[in-house]
Structures are given as C-alpha cells and as structure tokens.
What does this fold into?
Amino acid sequence: MKFIGHDSDIINYLVNDLTLLNSTLKQFKKHEVDGEPAISLMFELAYTEADVMLVFRNVFKNGFDGNPAAEPYNVDSCKFYHIGSKIYLSLDPDESEDGHDGISEDDNDFVLASHVEGYIFEEGMGE
It folds into this structure.
C-alpha cells in the first residue's frame, strides 16, 4: 500500500495519471477515523493491475444506499471535485446540462466530506 495524495492532489492524480472510469467498486465501508465519520471505497482499476482506496474523512453527507459493493458496481461516470473546503464524489452523477458541473440534487451514490486520502495497492508491491 502506498499513499498517493490527499484532497486536491488525489483528485488531480485520478484525473491525470489514473482514472476511476470503468473501474469496479469492490469495497464500501462506513467507519470512524479519529472519532469522526468516515467512508472507505476500494476500486479495482480497469487499465492497470492496481486497486485504489479512497478514505473520506469527516463525512457530511453519505448518498449511498446500503452497501453498493455487495454486487458488482461498475463506474461508468463520476464527479470528483474539491468544492470550497469540501471534497465531493458521485459515482452516479446527473449528466444533464444543468447538473454537469458541481453538485446536483439528481446526483446519486455520493459522499461529501472535509478530506479524502488516496492509497494505491499494486500487484507484486509487497505490503
């Protein structure tokens, strides 16, 4: 496991170097970090032998119903933004013209948090 960034760094990393598009959400976990609500999402990336885990800390809103990773969940589209002092990820975003940029009330499967940390698990990396 290797730390690959936090907040804007991880967003830029997953836009430029790797992508969540066409990945599979393979783990979803609600928990606490330092006494604050957190959500961890593990993605199996499509174009590399790597998995990426995102840990959202100090979660304000959780727009996931149940455990989305209970069944295969393919990421066909997503929003991943730094909005003001918050981090926003939607795995089922509103793609209409009105909802394309920013948070939309029609976005689904989302998390809004103060911070996000990213970790990469590469095959043969030795943990």
About this structure: The radius of gyration is 14 Å. Helices lie at 8-16. The mean pLDDT is 90. Residues 8-16 form the longest helix (9 residues).
